[in-house]
Amino acid sequence: MIPQEVVGFFKNKGGHSLIIKGEPGSGKTTFALEILNSLKNDFEIHYISSRVADDVLFLQFPWLEEVLNKKIKKSENKKIKRDELNKLEGLIEEGLVDEKAKFTENEAIFEIGSMMPEIDEIYDFVENVHPKKALVCVDSIDGLSEKYGVPAEKLLYTLQKDLVEKGVANIVFVLESSGFENIEYLGDGVISLHHEPWNSSWKRYMYIKKLRGSPIKRSKYIYTLEGGHFNVLDYNNFSLDSIKSIDLSNLISYFKSIDSSSLNLIISPDFPVELIQAIVLAFLKMSNGESLIIPPISYPSTKIKEHASKFLEMGVKTAGFNKEKADIILEGSDMLIELSPDIVNYHIKDGSIIIISVDTILSLYGNLRDLPRLVEGMKRTHRVILLGWENAVNAGIERTLNMVMMENIPVINDSKNAKAIIPKMSKDRVSLDLVPLM
After folding, report:
1. 389 in a domain, yes or no?
2. 279 and 162, same structural domain?
3. Same structural domain for residues 168 and 25?
4. Quick one: 329 and 210 in the same domain?
5. Is the same domain home to 316 and 358?
6. Where would a tag sit more exposed on the chain, N or C end, judged by fewer CB atoms within 10 A?
């Protein structure tokens, strides 16, 4: 998925050019091809590469092989004036712009015929599909510049004037170098891609610097290259009270893959409340029979029972404040007595899941001194899940997961990988996707 701002930019009337720049490995080519893929039903597309086509790209974008193998016939009747191209070629002929030669041991050989066959190929393609508009990707403009010894800005200016400004083509220019600030003003749009190490994964983000004539609702997006595709990540809030169903299968599969009898979920204060609720429901669904939960202060017993019945069609046992009508009333005197094995096993059977919210325990007992002993006793016969807002307790916990925010994207950050939690809305139904950050 690419940003809707980019889709709208190319679908506007007239021709438009977009410059994509970024560091090596940031996904420039993947992004450019994702644009072609997203718009291939709206335009006639073509891809010009200054390097040999990579078979890996064909696996990611199967249609690309057909595009690259498509033969472009030269049109006898010129429909598109090549004013700027003729000027540029004239400068090359006059020696005002150097044309690169191929050197052998004893001589220098200049190409006879087309001075810049890839550039001519673009014009031929645009003419052949006219009056339908073309969408062409030049990957990369500085690669062609180096190949022919013609400044990149002159190549870009030529295509901009002859094709883009005449409204017969949209062109995506990929810049291999992250520099070239002096060339940005020539394009109608500029997007820069960046990536940097982030915990156990990568943080990838893009800046939409300009899209001439189109509104930019968001100038910065987090994206991933998972599966060899470019996908921007967007999080939209939802409410469990306003939907009829929620698909927790991806969350459940992930938590089931973690082989440990106890988990410590350290939750960032700005982590979405609705996702905390969904994670609780996922654990309840995984339990062997009814679970026991000491709920977070923000997710009271009555609401948990309502959601468990609505979305899971199952009951749940709760322990906590008397005012919440919990199954096990905690007075706040001694957690080891009030949550003794006899009391817990009276309400749930062996193999069930026990979820303990640290903020509630701290509010009730004033400290966490006895919590490690409580966890050690419980996990002998049950799977124990701690929900904490800081790393207050480590004793007895086998695995820790951090529920954090990357910009505005909620992420489960494990010691081995990081996955963004992205809700997909469909009418009154929500499914939660886990997208690896790659």
Report:
1. yes
2. no
3. yes
4. no
5. yes
6. N
| Buried b or exposed e, range 343-359, using 16+ CB within 10 angstroms | ebeeebeeebbbbbbbb
3-state secondary structure string across 324-345: HCCCEECCCCCHHHHCCHHHHH
Q: Count of domains in the chain? A: 2
* pTM (predicted TM-score): 0.84
Identify the residue whose tokens are 């419980």: 378
Are 264 and 123 in the same domain? no
H or E element, residue 206: strand 201-211
Distances 314 to 153, 249, 286, 304 between C-alpha atoms, Å: 65, 16, 11, 11
Strands 231-233 vs 169-174: parallel, antiparallel or unpaired = unpaired
How far is residue 426's CA from residue 429's CA, in Å, rounded to a whole number?
A: 5
Task: Look up residue 19 and give its amino acid.
Answer: I
Report the pLDDT averaged over residues 217-226.
93
Q: Which residues pair with 18 in a beta bridge?
A: 172, 189
Q: How far is it, in rounded angstroms, from Cα 86 to Cα 94?
A: 12
Is residue 31 assigned to a domain? yes
pLDDT digits (tens, 9 = 90+) for 11-43: 999 999 999 999 888 999 999 999 999 999 999
Residue 224, pLDDT score:
94
Instruction: Please choose, from the candidates 407, 402, 436, the residue with its C-alpha nearest in 3D space to the C-alpha of residue 421.
Output: 436
Residue identified by tokens 């654990």 is 283
In angstroms, the Cα distances linking 53 to 40, 50, 64, 374, 406 are 19, 9, 10, 60, 34
Residue 91: what residue type? L
Q: Encoding tokens for residue 200?
A: 């156990």
Q: Where are the alpha helices (DSSP H) in 240-333?
A: 249-256, 273-286, 301-307
Residue 238, in any domain of the structure? no
Residue 151 CB: number of other CB atoms within 10 A? Answer: 15
| Length of the chain as a residue count | 438
Asked if residue 255 and residue 226 are part of one domain, the reply reads: no
Residue span of the structural domain in which 344 resides:
245-436
Does residue 357 form part of some domain? yes
Rounded CA-CA distance 193/218 in Å is 15
Report residue 338's pLDDT band, with 50, 70 and 90 as the boundaries: very high
Q: What is the pLDDT of residues 272-304, one digit of tens each?
A: 999 999 999 999 999 888 899 999 988 999 999
Please give the Cα distance from 200 to 178 (Å, whole number): 25
CB atoms inside a 10 Å sphere around CB 376: 14
| Structure confidence by residue, pLDDT tens digits, 61-82 | 787 777 767 666 666 666 788 8
